[in-house]
C-alpha cells in the first residue's frame, strides 16, 4: 500500500527525470501535494493516496476557499494535485483518477481580489507620511497585512495587547476569543512612529478609548467604515483598479504565506479560524512556531 512519503518521492523523481522540470517547478508541485496531505491530517483522515475519493478533493477545495486563498493559488494547488494523480495512473498504482471531474470551485467568485506582493507594497508606499492621518493610516495598513486581521479586530486593538519585545499582538476575535498573532518589525516600527508622533499629541482622548491603539483626531476609536475608506483611498493613490477592501489584505496575508510554503495549520491559527480536529503531530504547534512562520514566509520580512 502506497504511503504519502513514497508517493511524493516517486512523483518528484518522475517530474525530474521523465518530465525534466526545473527544480523550482518540482518543488512547487510537491509542495502542493504536501498541502493536500496536511489537510487530511488536519481533518484526522488517515487515508493513503490510493484511498482518496472525489469527495475528499472537493472538501479540500472548499477548505482552501474558506481559508481565504486567492483564485490563482487555488488553481495552482489544484493543478499540482491533478498532476500527482495522473502520475499514479501512469504508474498503474491506481485505476481511477479521483481528480478527473474536479474543476474550479464556483465559490471562488465570493473571494475578493488578492493583491500581489508588489501591489501591497505600492499601497503601503502611496500613503503620505508627512501628515498625522497619513502616519496613522500607514500603521493601520501595515498591521492589516502583517497580521491578517479582521476589521473589527483592528479597530479593537489595544495598546496593552502589544507585546513588542517578543513580536506578538493579542487579538480579540470572533466570539470574544483571544489569540496571539506574530507581527513583523516593519509594522511595529510604524506603530511606534504613529504612537510617538501622533497619538500622544492628541489634545483629548475619549476615556473609554484610552487603551485603543488607533484613534481619530477627536480621540475616539475608528469605525469600520473609516477603515474601508482608508483602504480605498490608499489603493486609489497606488493606481490599483482591483476591487479592494480591508478583507483583501487578510486574504493576501494568507495567500502569500501559503504560497511561500508556510504550514497550513499555522496560517489557520493566525487567522483565528475555528480549530478543527487535529492529529497528534499538531498538538505541539506553539507560539514560537507561529513567530518563526511569520519571519520565514511573510514577504515583508524577507527584504
What is the element layout, followed by pairings?
Layout: H1 4-17, H2 23-42, H3 54-67, H4 71-90, H5 117-125, H6 132-147, H7 151-155, E1 162-163, E2 168-172, E3 178-182, H8 185-197, H9 224-237, H10 246-259, H11 264-271, H12 287-297
Antiparallel strand pairs: 1-2, 2-3
Helix pairs in contact: 1-2, 2-4, 5-6, 6-8, 6-10, 10-11
Features:
elongated; DNA polymerase, domain 1; 303 residues; hpI Integrase, Chain A; mainly alpha; single chain; three-stranded antiparallel β-sheet
What do you see in this structure?
This protein has 303 residues and is mainly alpha-helical. Helix content is 52%, strand content 4%. The protein has helices at 4-17, 23-42, 54-67, 71-90, 117-125, 132-147, 151-155, 185-197, 224-237, 246-259, 264-271, 287-297, and strands spanning 162-163, 168-172, 178-182. A three-stranded antiparallel β-sheet has the order 1-2-3. Helix 1 packs antiparallel against helix 2 (23-42) and helix 10 runs antiparallel to helix 11 (264-271). The N and C termini lie far apart (44 Å). The relative contact order is 0.13.
